[in-house]
Amino acid sequence: MPIEYLGLASIDGPLVVVDGVRGAAYGDIVNFRVNRSELKKGQVIAIEGERAMVQVFDATTSMSLDNTHSSFSGHGMEIELAPEILGRVFNGVGEAIDGLGAIHSNISREVNGAPLNPVSRIYPRNYIETGFSAIDTLMTLIRGQKLPIFSGDGMPHNELAAQIVKQAKLGDNSDEEFAIVFAAMGVKHDIADFFQRSFEESGALDHVTMFVNTADDPAMERLITPRVALTTAEYLAYDLGKQVLVILTDMTSFCEALREVSSAKQEIPSRKGYPGYLYSELATIYERAGIVQGRKGSVTQIPILTMPNDDITHPIPDLTGYITEGQIVLDRDLYGKNIFPPIGVLPSLSRLMKDGIGEGYTREDHEDVANQLFAAYSGAAEARSLASVIGEEELSDIDKKYLEFGEKFEEEFVGQAADETRTIQESLDLAWELLRAFPREELNRMDTKILDRYYDSSDHEPESEENGEA
């Protein structure tokens, strides 16, 4: 039976100090009993000798120095896990909030996860189809990858996240089980309701486990939410053998909570007031993606973060870029043109896509098409810059073709209607329709064999030529 300590040494906002504590460790869960009836939880965030500083998960207004009993659990935050977690909605610390009761199981895991030997990792290969042409064709998401989305204030990253959850699936040739873990941190109640309603109405909630931490929940809970979500994902992947996609939104809220707690602990701040250990905190979350040797499942991550003032050099996107394998950047100019999703193609990339596309994975022409689309869209950007200087009517014929391609590419390829999903095959076919506007000799990023098969294919010749009317 754990020792119960009577009284607190001090209370400072969400932080309380307990004196005379023995055997406690950093990260241990603390159970508080206030006025002999009210129960609260907290977590040890600092230890100095026999003095423990605890962050309370709830408001401390009812707590005083002499009405609180504290007992230290001797372990970190744990959650109970069972196959029934799919289709359920929980709060940020894993407590059911969907009215269906708690999960009862003899399997419980600590949310910080077990250390993973890097040697046991398997290089990611197969892809996950999101249903968006720009992502699937140009920055393909590979199983076991961590591919963040960099957004900005007011951008439609919530709508994009919801649609990815509804549309995402494994490749056409896969018969493996697919699951999604969705974690929302620091969101408003109407946004939380939007996510849950979207998943329920689309039927996607059946294979989704959802964790919701709202803006009025404690900051400390926000720090635990992504760890609870990833512990759930690891159980689904490594115990149940599922291919799991984890979507974390918004990691900026997580970092803001980390800064708030660090400030309360009176730690010396680093860049922009964030603690010096921001990098390692982000790494402990992002590095839990991957494929483990000897296990059937995989954990793939799409963290979403909002860049303050659209600044990609801000510490949060900057450090995230160091840890992850690429990024998807949302473009405010495209958003202003009413294009959804407003994905900025040129600053976006997936560093692992080259080994998970092509023959045997997507289609043999995928890599060549992606390279040519990047080159053509870059040419369109140059043509726009030139037109702004000398005027569009002074452009050469080929520059005008690039200009026209750029408009069609943004509207027809990057842009998709709400709830419109495209297979990878449909996206590649659409890309070819756009690229055929150029003379063959202009498509210089492609192998000749690929051009022979797809550019000059009789399947794509004009109808008048097929009927001998050319």
How would you explain this protein's 3D organization?
This protein has 470 residues and is α/β, with parallel strands linked by helices. The chain has 3 domains: 4-75, Elongation Factor Tu (Ef-tu), domain 3; 79-355, Rossmann fold, CATH 3.40.50; 365-455, no CATH class. It contains 13 helices and 21 strands. Strands 9, 13, 15, 16, 17, 18, 19, 20 and 21 form a 9-stranded mixed sheet that branches. Mean pLDDT is 91; it is low at 458-470.
Brief synopsis:
With 470 residues, the chain is an alpha/beta fold.
List keywords for this structure.
ATP binding, hydrogen ion transport, 7-stranded antiparallel beta sheet, 470 residues, 21 strands, P-loop_NTPase, 3 domains, V-ATPase_su_B/beta, hydrolase activity, Elongation Factor Tu (Ef-tu), domain 3, 9-stranded mixed beta sheet, Rossmann fold, disordered C terminus, alpha/beta
